Amino acid sequence: MSRLKKRVEAWERRQRQPDPNAALKLLTTAELRRALALTERGGVLPDGKVRHPEVYQEASPEEWEALERWKELCGEPLDHVEAAEELLDRMGDSYGWRSPEAMEAALLLERLGLPDASPWLVRKTAEAVVNFYAELEEHRDSPSHADVRGAVRRLERLKDFEYVQKTTRIVSEP
Q1: pLDDT (0 to 100) of residue 167
Q2: For position 171, what pLDDT does the model report?
Q3: Is a pLDDT exceeding 70 seen at residue 18?
Q4: Is 64 exposed, middle or buried (0-12, 13-18, 19+ CB in 10 A)?
Q5: Which of 18, 19, 73, 157 is deepest in the core (most CB within 10 A)?
Q6: Backbone dihedral angles phi then psi of residue 19, each to the nearest 5 degrees
Q7: Burial, 147: exposed, middle or buried (Cβ in 10 Å; 0-12, 13-18, 19+)?
Q8: Could you tell me if 126 and 106 are in contact, meaning their C-beta atoms sit under 8 angstroms apart?
Q9: DSSP 128-154
Q10: How far apart are CA 61 and CA 63, in angstroms?
Q11: 44 phi and psi, to 5 degrees?
Q12: At what angle do helices 100-113 and 80-95 cross, to 10 degrees?
């Protein structure tokens, strides 16, 4: 097969693959917030298991409507961490990466992604995520800028700390 033919086929495959996040973009920010608030109260874990299913029986009609629209657009299983990342992107783009709105969305993202982590670790990780995006935007012309590299190192150190915490918890359990 010629190199040109391989490239054309690769291009055609890319054209056919839909953007996996396109459906999330069809949800309004209010719908995303309501559905994610319900998901968080339900204690949905990153693997999809639900700790508190009774919360869904007590959900408001607006929350149910948002959840149903999310399921209709994205299908199941719902990726609540991906939806929280979409909300964070919207808040950062709309209000700025150092805004309280972006910080709140980052906290939600980290609470959903690290359900058993300490509140301290969740907050520090959310701060590091927001700082990373802010530095990336500020230095978009030079992604190897010292401030961007520092933000990346901070995120990596927090990931290491999370691992140590998990290891410590396993070792210390009776």
Answers
A1: 46
A2: 41
A3: no
A4: middle
A5: 73
A6: -70, 120
A7: middle
A8: yes
A9: HHHHHHHHHHHTTT-TT-HHHHHHHHH
A10: 5
A11: -70, 130
A12: 170
Token digits for 22?
Answer: 């396109």
**Long-range pairs for 160-166: beta carbons < 8 A, 24 or more residues apart:** 161/121, 162/114, 162/117, 162/121, 162/125, 165/117, 165/118, 165/121
What span, in angstroms and rounded, lies between the C-alpha atoms of 90 and 8?
34
CA–CA gap between residue 136 and residue 147 (Å, rounded): 8
Max Cα-Cα span within the chain: 62
User: Is the model more confident about 4 or about 131?
Assistant: 131
Residue 94 confidence (pLDDT): 93
Find all residues with CB under 8 Å of 45, minimum gap 6, and list them.
51, 115
The residue ranges of every structural domain in the chain are 18-172
Q: Structure tokens of 19?
A: 């953007």
